What we know:
CATH topology: TIM Barrel
Mean pLDDT: 88
Shape: globular
CATH superfamily: Aldolase class I
Strand content: 15-25%
Number of domains: 1
Oligomer: single chain
Largest sheet: 10 strands, parallel
Amino acid sequence: MSIAIRNDWTLEEIHEIYNTPLLELVFKAANVHREYNDTAEVQVCTLLSIKTGGCTEDCAYCPQAARYNTGVNVQALMKKEEVLAYAQKAKDAGSTRFCMGAAWREVRDNRDFDRVLEMVKGVNEMGMEVCCTLGMLTEDQAKKLADAGLYAYNHNLDTSSEYYESIITTRTYEERLNTLDNVRKAGVSVCCGGIIGLGETHEDRIGMLHTLATMPQHPESVPINALVRVAGTPLENNQKTDIWDMVRMIATARILMPKTMVRLSAGRTEMNVAEQALCFMAGANSIFAGDKLLTTPNPSFDEDNRMFDLLGLKPRESFKAEKQKLAEMFE
């Protein structure tokens, strides 16, 4: 039976889906995935830290927070030429989306932001979807990024509104939602998900999915991250995230948001190919490729290429959603 696109999911409905016996849940999610997406396609994204460390926030999972001693070296904003060279390398390796991250609490209207705008223009001219994650944005800043050619903006909720203050106290949940509203107003697509393994309950995971799935428009991308436990952070001794929890989150997200790119994000270095295959079967259709995610390890391009060959997967082309919309207009 066809699943409709809905934005009015109740917590009770999501609770029932999430707690479906696992194999049945994966089967249902796989059917939804097949109905709305090409299951052989996986969006390949590359994430680069263009300004590293020294962040004033206290996110309990983050090695870039200045207050934690994690061994991360503070690095100033990279030069445009260096960023574009890295983007070209990623494109040559098969990435179709390039995301630039800066360890800022919020964007400031200064020379560094002007330099980021030039980076966005440069990557856009390379024919890649360009994404940024720079912290909080005003409506005017989001508009400037859109005018420069920004395709997507990442701003994760991290967890449920109820558990949020246990992880972060330097920025409110409402401020995160306001930034997402500013991104939408600028016509930029939204990339927004969260992290599991922070010490949250299953109800917190359900709550986060409820917030995402009941937005007026579903995020175009939803990253599902497994906590990467970094020495020196408050969460360094948390238990490894169970693969079955990742599968359950991905499958539930796929059913709730059928057209969304569900990204198998941080934590893949602790998953073997079989475990990642289960995630793809459950509806994941996006990954970060390259040997580093900001400051934490990630599988290499070569490892992912071998996995794609084994599983019969192929990279999704850039701007496919826009090309499909244009094709439908002229049918």
